[in-house]
Design a protein that fits this description.
Layout (H helix, E strand, L loop, with lengths): L7 H15 L3 H18 L10 H5 L2 E2 L2 E2 L2 H5 L9 H11 L12 E3 L8 E2 L2 E7 L2 E4 L12
Antiparallel strand pairs: 1-2, 3-6, 4-5, 5-6
Helix pairs in contact: 1-2, 1-5, 2-5
Keywords: Hydrolase
Protein name: Cell wall hydrolase
InterPro entries: Cell_wall_hydrolase_SleB, SleB_dom1
Length: 145
């Protein structure tokens, strides 16, 4: 059973975002990015309250910018999703979860060692160039369901 409701259009959006944000980190890295997208929709807390669809997550604006750099910069995100990315997107929508992205709501590439916290949120782990962060204990129970 899927963690969140989704349509074919959502599979395409996640697939394009996964590729744009983590293609250089292989399938595993793209799956972690997909986890973060699904977690943000499922969480309904902190910066991600009242998001109702995958589209809301992908195109969310915070502080005057899109939450995902790939949307703003237009790199690979605006190319068509390939079969592999679509398959990976369906995996995360249909409950694939693994650390460090299992409960993560944030990730970024610091181009340096991962900090222990990021905006007061604890470090969950690193995969290749990306650092992943989970919500602080007790602040976001929806992400753990």
């Amino acid at each position: 059973m899927a963690r969140v409701k989704f349509r074919d259009k959502d599979v395409d959006l996640i697939a394009r975002m996964m590729r744009a944000e983590a293609e250089g980190e292989g399938n595993q890295g793209m799956l972690y990015v997909g986890n973060v997208i699904v977690n943000r929709l499922a969480a309904n807390c902190l910066d991600f309250r009242d998001l109702r669809s995958i589209e809301d997550v992908i195109f969310q604006v915070q502080g005057g910018n899109y939450s995902f750099e790939a949307v703003q910069k237009g790199n690979l995100f605006y190319n068509r999703a390939r079969e592999n990315e679509q398959r990976l997107a369906r995996q995360v929508l249909n409950y694939w979860r693994q650390q460090p992205g299992k409960y993560a709501l944030w990730y970024f590439n610091p181009y340096a060692p991962c900090p222990d916290t990021w905006y007061s949120q604890p470090f969950a782990g690193q995969f290749k160039n990306h650092c992943y962060y989970e919500p602080a204990a007790g602040t976001c129970p929806g992400v753990y369901t």
